[in-house]
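name: query_chain
kind: protein
chains: 1
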Amino acid sequence: MRVIFDEELKAVADDLDRMVQDVRKAINGAGDALLKQDIEAAQSVIDGDIEIDALESSVIDQCIRLLAKQNPVATDLRVVVSTLRLAATFERMGDLAKHIAEAARRIYPEPALPAEATELFTEMQQFLSMTADRIVVMLQDRDAKPAEEIILDDDKLDALHHKTFDLALSDKWTGSRQELIDVVLLGRFMERLGDHAVSASRRVVYIVSGFDPSKEPSRDEDGAVEWRRPRRCRHRHSAITELLSTESPMNGETATAARRFCMPRRAVRGLEPGS
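structure:
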């Protein structure tokens, strides 16, 4: 049974790898369509989205069969469920690349962007191309390191996205209303591509290490990556830790509240009355 499970899981992984390769191709093609008025690249991205959708359906079907027939547990279950989420994320990335290509095709042969926005969107596209390469390596090697880099670098793309609003609202803007709408929408599409890359990276970290994908990575003084609770949760945890440092016993209601505010269950259990 284990041999069968491993073979079926490898088939799923192969489809997922093909899917992410197609997504990288779509992101790069959408960039060429947008920045170089490449109508053939735009059409290729639009037509290729059908294959990405088909691969998503294939991955989902195979994962459902694995869950139903093999009843995976522990790490195997984590891999199968995360693969389902990854397939949905990559399908959405393909859709966003398709939206960018459609915008470029709609206005062809005119440039999709006004001259004052070209440099900014070139930077965003270069960042996305690098991110797409990292995603491919991340999936092929099941490596958490490029995943951590994608998550940590996402703020750079967010900053570029904010500049699209600054450009649209500045006195230097000379474009038409349609160009204004296109700049805002295209910037949003590209920013969402980065967000989905982060989501996929968190899933890979979860598959590889079991770390909670809702936690945030940061770099320590030596440049090493460490994973922390989200900022809101860290603040609550500090307050609860201070409360627990007192010598007064906790009643049942306080113990329950401590659980709710991110305190590890085993830490609270030892402080409950009667423990």
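note: DSSP finds nine helices and two strands in the chain.
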